[in-house]
Specification:
Layout: H1 4-31, E1 33-38, E2 43-48, E3 53-58, H2 60-64, H3 68-97, H4 106-112
Length: 117
């Protein structure tokens, strides 16, 4: 009558272990840094592996130019580049975590997992 409980306990243990690994992964991704740049290095953007923007650096000559439209374009380009690198880096880390296995929905689950929520 209680044969199935062993399977449930095993599944719960596996789930708990996976949660611990996801927590570790989020902490590791938070420490990774990726940089995007545009305009020959006039604009630099730093993001972490959790795809959060950490900083912007803008060359003073660009600020002095008063070319608002160019600054906006360069900020957008550098931000997109930094975020793309962060996504690629996170995917590489997750591939290591899963041993290269393609687990359906894992990327989405990890993307939604936020230990600070």
């Amino acid at each position: 009558m209680f044969k199935g409980l062993g399977n449930i306990a095993g599944m719960m243990k596996q789930f708990s272990e996976m949660q611990g690994r996801m927590q570790e992964m989020q902490e590791k991704l938070g420490k990774l840094r990726f940089e995007g740049s545009a305009g020959g290095g006039m604009v630099n953007v730093e993001a972490n592996g959790q795809q959060k923007i950490l900083s912007y650096k803008i060359d003073q000559t660009l600020l002095d130019s008063d070319d608002k439209e160019m600054l906006e374009d360069l900020l957008t380009a550098a931000t997109n580049q930094a975020l793309e690198k962060a996504r690629e880096g996170a995917a590489e880390e997750m591939a290591q975590l899963t041993g290269g296995m393609n687990i359906p929905g894992l990327d989405e689950a990890l993307a939604k997992f936020n230990p600070n929520a």
